[in-house]
Amino acid sequence: MDIMLILQIIVLLGGIYLGVRLGGMGVGYAGGLGVVILAMLGMKVDMKDIPMDVILIIASVISAITAMQVAGGLDYLVQVASKILRKNPKQINYLAPIVTYLLTILAGTGHTAFSMIPVIVEVAKTQNIKPSAPLALSVVSSQVAITASPISAAFVAMTGVCEPLGVSYPMLLFICISTTFVAMIVTAFIVNKFYDLDLSKDPIYQDRLARGAVAEIKEVEYQALKPYAKRSVAIFAVGVLVVVCYALVISKSLGIVEKPILSRDAAIISFMLTIGFLIATLCKIDTSKLLSTSTFQSGMNACICVIGIAWLGTTFVNGHIDSIKEVAKNVVTQYPFILAVALYFLSCLLYSQAATTRVMMPAVAAALGMTTPENSGQIWILVASFAAVSGLFVLPTYPTTLGAIAMDDTGTTRVGKFVFNHSFFVPGTIMVALSVAFAFLIAPVLI
After folding, report:
1. For 111, which of 142, 152, 159, 320 is 20 to 30 Å away at the CA?
2. How many degrees, rounded to 5, is the angle at CA 135 between CA 97 and CA 72?
3. Is the pLDDT of residue 240 over 90?
């Protein structure tokens, strides 16, 4: 290993470290700084390495969700989900992750879990259940569900890698949804069965309770919905259905439309913007409020993060692609699970499922010599490992993770002295590991 490679690795890891320390859009800022330094060290920097397709998909999906939020649609969805949890409080450890999983599938972003965190905490307290259990399951399931959402940037990026190599859109969607959903349910069972869930026995909770730091459980009062809240949800849901149907009919495996007018990515972007237009006009929203919503702000944050950190990662990977090919060819072919392990740890550093997918999957496919369906016999390894890009919870710095810690007034959702021993690590690792394991079982059979 020569000195220049060592310096480049230091820049890569240093950029990621600084980004995590800054948090938020700081991840993107640090990535941009890293690109500048890599260029000064002689690495080729190309604008093509910026994942514009991923960024545009995130921006367009967020724009539609933002319109729905202003119209009151998110409030309506939260009320529906809240009523489901409150009617079945004893099943909170199962229903909470299912709710956040489905919200992410529909919206294509895990930030929808934010709205459910206060409800989960309150319902858990009424049942003397440590909120840390359903919160950890819910936050992680919302992240894993990104790999199974047909409109998420990560899934679309993965489809772009797999479809030219013979894995159809519907097949990839089926594998991702089935394996992640089952893994979520099994993880919830493990937590429900083997975790100490008794809230009253938690010493930190008792201390906070004695100091009056735990809010009393109040009678539920739902705010009146805006006039077109339900209509906005209906428009958005129909729009997502149209996107999925369009992606299916242009899929090469079905062959219904051989020469589509719009590519899949172009369809998602244009359809999402159209959904935003329909909500804005048919639901009579005040468009001046769009930029101030939490959804838009989190979406812009995600875009900047992906620009910087994915550009940094892709620049480094492309600069050493030959060496990476050699390692991947020798290691991944003999030990396929190594790819999943690498994706798991890389995702917590890159801070994004989409960025991890965009940086790693094309490089690994090229490393294994997969250029056409005829020589893509090992594509199942990539598909089976895909859920491992969901390791964003490993470092307790992701927004939904921090939100859950902050909003749990019982103190059971916390970070330990050693950083990694936090409430999300074990349930999250189990869920990701099971998702990958189930995919390793069915992917070789179906593909």
Report:
1. 159
2. 70
3. yes
> Which three-class secondary structure state does DSSP give residue 154?
helix
Residue 129, strand partner residues: 198
Extract the tokens encoding 3.
Answer: 């000195």
Cβ count within 10 A of residue 353: 31
Counting every residue written for the chain, the total comes to 447
Residues 6+ apart with CB under 8 A from 220: 82, 86
Burial of 227 (0-12, 13-18, 19+ CB in 10 A): exposed
Q: In sequence order, which residues have a C-beta less than 8 Å from that of residue 401 and are 6 or more positions away?
A: 139, 392, 393, 422, 424
Q: Are 298 and 341 in contact (CB under 8 A)?
A: no
User: Rounded distance, CA 153 to CA 47, Å?
Assistant: 19
Q: Identify which of 65, 265, 306 has the alpha carbon closest to the alpha carbon of residue 157.
A: 265
∠ CA 58-356-340, rounded to 5°: 135
Whole-angstrom Cα distance, residue 362 to residue 187?
30
DSSP, res 165: G
392-404 residue pLDDT tens: 998 877 888 888 9
Minimal CA–CA distance to 75: which of 40, 16, 133, 118? 118
CB 436 within 8 A of CB 430: no
Which of 185, 216, 54 lies closest to 121 in space, CA to CA? 216
- Packing angle between helix 117-126 and helix 399-407, nearest 10 degrees? 40
Whole-number average pLDDT of the chain = 90
d(CA 167, CA 424): 32
**Amino acid in position 244:** V
Read off φ and ψ for residue 208, nearest 5 degrees. -65, -35
- pTM, full prediction: 0.87
Say if residues 64 and 272 touch (Cβ distance below 8 Å). Answer: yes
Give the span between the Cα atoms of 32 and 254, in whole angstroms.
41
Domain map of the chain by residue range? 46-445
CA 160 to CA 149: how far, in whole Å?
14
Amino acid at 414: R
Give the start-end residues of each E strand in 253-387.
Answer: none
